[in-house]
Specification:
- The structure holds 2 protein chains of 2 kinds.
- Chain A is mainly β.
- Chain A is built from no helices and 11 strands.
- In chain A, a hairpin with a 3-residue loop joins β4 and β5.
- Chain B is an all-beta fold.
- The N and C termini of chain B lie far apart (40 Å).
- The chains are: A mainly beta, B mainly beta.
- Chains A and B meet through β4, β5 and β10 of A and β4, β5 and β9 of B.
């Protein structure tokens, strides 16, 4: 049982480049979300999805796009990378959309924007 | 915006000592979760508390949810080096889908 799998684990980009962070879960969870973790800032919600075909914005959505074409996958796209997007990105999933459900996190993607 | 303040931010103690980590807010949360995160990994859920005044024990860890559901604490008895890590509290404002509000975390180091 792989749980939540994030790829890549590390990535370095130049300012202005675009890329997609991949997230896949094999637990048939309805709810998936993306957070970024910055020193001194804690984890902040970027985007979330309550099911296939449904996405919505979190606290810090600017500069990011998401889609949810299947239950299993929830990719995060950086449209035009900026140094302010240097961070560790975590994908999480849970059985339902309720925020009090246990969240299962991947091991993160460490992204540096030069 | 709901905020969760964790204290202390950093804590380094000797093996065998007891410690308490606090998570406070001016807002009411319907539930509160505690996670532990190790370097290079994602947070892992330790416990969820839902009812005001609730106390849950997980081996040497005791979690308490405040009566007014605005604060929580984590107490570790006889800390061990394996307890080292980043402890995060996270609150749910209600039953909505808009995610958890995380505290900034407590970095705990237990020295042998």
């Amino acid at each position: 049982n792989a749980g939540v799998t994030q790829t890549p684990k590390f990535q370095v980009l130049k300012t202005g480049q675009s890329m997609t962070l991949q997230c896949a879960q094999d637990m048939n969870h309805e709810y998936m979300s993306w957070y970024r973790q910055d020193p001194g800032m804690g984890l902040r919600l970027i985007h979330y999805s309550v099911g296939a075909g449904i996405t919505d914005q979190g606290e810090v959505p600017n500069g990011y796009n998401v889609s949810r074409s299947t239950t299993e996958d929830f990719p995060l796209r950086l449209l035009s990378a900026a140094p302010s997007q240097t961070s560790v990105y975590f994908c999480a999933s849970s059985w339902t959309y309720r925020a009090d459900q246990p969240q299962h996190f991947g091991d993160g993607t460490r992204l540096s924007i030069l | 915006t709901q905020l969760l303040e964790q204290s202390p931010q950093f804590l380094s103690i000797q093996e065998g000592e007891n410690l308490t980590v606090y998570c406070n807010s001016s807002s009411v949360f319907s539930s509160l979760q505690w996670y532990r995160q190790e370097p290079g990994e994602g947070p892992v859920l330790l416990v969820t508390v839902v009812t005001g005044g609730e106390v849950k024990k997980l081996k040497r860890l005791t979690f308490q949810f405040g009566d007014a559901r605005k604060d929580s604490s984590l107490h570790i008895t006889a800390a061990q080096p394996g307890d080292t890590g980043l402890y995060l509290c996270a609150g749910a404002a209600g039953g909505g889908a808009d995610g958890l509000t995380f505290g900034k975390g407590t970095h705990l180091i237990i020295q042998p």
